[in-house]
């Protein structure tokens, strides 16, 4: 694997060009995918660094609308032929898939939970009343405020952006008592040991698709898509399909205060089941709609996908019936 912004050679004798954001986390996860792609294709893979709007904007994601801000430039590069495929954090992808692009693989998911990095090794329940907790996510803000309220205390949620170093730096400098990050991101950059607590999904549901990656290429690149498909993990794809269908059915964007998590398990009759949990809430945490549903997962991949989509739609309908629409602010259209 090599890093470059240009390519020489043509056809099968040149390296495959993998488009990635420039952040340390994006480079780390893209590098891990590049190694696997090189194994299955027998070709070198070079990383092509691309700057997205979300990387250069100084506004908070809730203000600029998180949907697509980290992926549009990568998709443009794919369609322009500047890169052969791209790696995205799946939670950053809009739920509507363009006809001219295909998600060729969703590799096995890393821990989908959120992680707390707090001063003095504290857990969330041990944070003092009025603790300053950094996150730029309305989803996290809603659930953190609700959790704090259930513990009989309040927190001050401070909007932050930046890479892993920047965010953890707020804690190390004493500016914040704690920050919340994705456990998967900490794992991929080798810093998961700095988490003082992995947050139980019963308290904080992650973003739909959190912990999973999407490997995307042009729909016309059928041979490459077939090779990339060897990286696909069936259970992960089924789970994130349910979560993203829920998000789409709620007509909510990536920055909406929506959490979702699907997990597969085997019941006493040895039937594989999926449990899908979802939450929508006001950012002050005073009102949450949190529901779950369970259904069997067929053995056929196509049937399993259809079932996961149905579970997502069914749960969205139930949440909307409980008033979820009024808790999300402006819904995506």
From TrEMBL:
<dbReference type="InterPro" id="IPR036803">
    <property type="entry name" value="Porphobilinogen_deaminase_C_sf"/>
</dbReference>
<dbReference type="InterPro" id="IPR022417">
    <property type="entry name" value="Porphobilin_deaminase_N"/>
</dbReference>
<dbReference type="Pfam" id="PF03900">
    <property type="entry name" value="Porphobil_deamC"/>
</dbReference>
<comment type="function">
    <text>Tetrapolymerization of the monopyrrole PBG into the hydroxymethylbilane pre-uroporphyrinogen in several discrete steps.</text>
</comment>
<keyword id="KW-0808">Transferase</keyword>
<dbReference type="InterPro" id="IPR022418">
    <property type="entry name" value="Porphobilinogen_deaminase_C"/>
</dbReference>
<comment type="similarity">
    <text>Belongs to the HMBS family.</text>
</comment>
<dbReference type="InterPro" id="IPR022419">
    <property type="entry name" value="Porphobilin_deaminase_cofac_BS"/>
</dbReference>
<feature type="domain" description="Porphobilinogen deaminase N-terminal">
    <location>
        <begin position="16"/>
        <end position="223"/>
    </location>
</feature>
<comment type="subunit">
    <text>Monomer.</text>
</comment>
<dbReference type="InterPro" id="IPR000860">
    <property type="entry name" value="HemC"/>
</dbReference>
<feature type="modified residue" description="S-(dipyrrolylmethanemethyl)cysteine">
    <location>
        <position position="254"/>
    </location>
</feature>
<feature type="domain" description="Porphobilinogen deaminase C-terminal">
    <location>
        <begin position="239"/>
        <end position="320"/>
    </location>
</feature>
<dbReference type="Pfam" id="PF01379">
    <property type="entry name" value="Porphobil_deam"/>
</dbReference>
<keyword id="KW-0627">Porphyrin biosynthesis</keyword>
<protein>
    <recommendedName>
        <fullName>Porphobilinogen deaminase</fullName>
        <ecNumber>2.5.1.61</ecNumber>
    </recommendedName>
</protein>
<dbReference type="GO" id="GO:0004418">
    <property type="term" value="F:hydroxymethylbilane synthase activity"/>
</dbReference>
